[in-house]
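Q: I'm writing a short methods note and want an example of a predicted protein-small molecule complex. Could you take the sequence and the SMILES for adenosine-5'-triphosphate and return the bound structure as tokens? Please keep the output block clean; save any remarks for afterwards.
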Amino acid sequence: MISLKNIKKYFHKGSVNEVFALNDINLEIGEGEFVTVIGSNGAGKSTLLNCIAGSFLPDSGSITINNCDVTAWPEYKRAKFISRVFQDPLLGTCPSATIQQNMALAIRRGMSRGLAPGVKTKDKPFFREQLKHLGLGLEDRVMDIVGLLSGGQRQALTMLMATMVRPEVLLLDEHIAALDPKTANQILSLTRDIVAEQNLTTLMITHNMKHAIAFGSRLIMLHQGRIILDVRGEEKMQLTVKDLLAQFYRSQGEELANDSLLLG
Ligand SMILES: Nc1ncnc2c1ncn2[C@@H]1O[C@H](COP(=O)(O)OP(=O)(O)OP(=O)(O)O)[C@@H](O)[C@H]1O
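A: Understood, no commentary inside the block.
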């Protein structure tokens, strides 16, 4: 479970370029909840994930994961709880190492790394079994250098590696945005299966409103650093892209109304 209380995050505070990226975020995410996160460019989506992951610390507020206050923890210390998959498939893997060397690193998540661990003979059948689940034939290519894989194959491997040791929290930062539509759908299905099998607490940023509605158990919309929509269950299932667009334009309209008030 994740709990964010009164999270505020500024960039360039006190300067003319000041940005209020997260404006008093309060969010409780229960164990196994799969939250899709939408919002316009600059709404604060990545900043929210960065604050949870510890990529940077909030200016105020607190973050707890499974009742452990991690607010002041640096990113590397939170890594024992959190796995993250980015838009760029290059970021989740070591491209110059083989598939099984990458998996050997992933299986040691949260443990002290020490010197290069190498691939243990006893782990090899497990790696092949895991790869087989992907249905991409990668189980027959364990000695291939990861840099040779296509973006989709690599992102599938990244998803596998991110969840081989069950994380308490899975953060997906537009993880399908760089893929063609067919591959994106395959990775989304894989995501849904892994999240369901392991009952993972998950946040997934997407710009695709259809995906935001179809996937996950809860949907939040951010606008100017605030949560302006938070729906789950039946209410989420009834949502349409039209509803989301209406909400989106309403938030933009309010902004215009405020501006006109100010200018008036
Ligand atoms: N490291 C940073 N330094 C300065 N400003 C930043 C930094 N990171 C984010 N911002 C600013 O904070 C605001 C929120 O950015 P963020 O990346 O969280 O938005 P987003 O919703 O993820 O947008 P997008 O959909 O375009 O990726 C933006 O105005 C952005 O310019």
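A: Remarks, as requested: Residues 241-263 form the longest helix (23 residues). The chain has one domain: 2-91+166-263.
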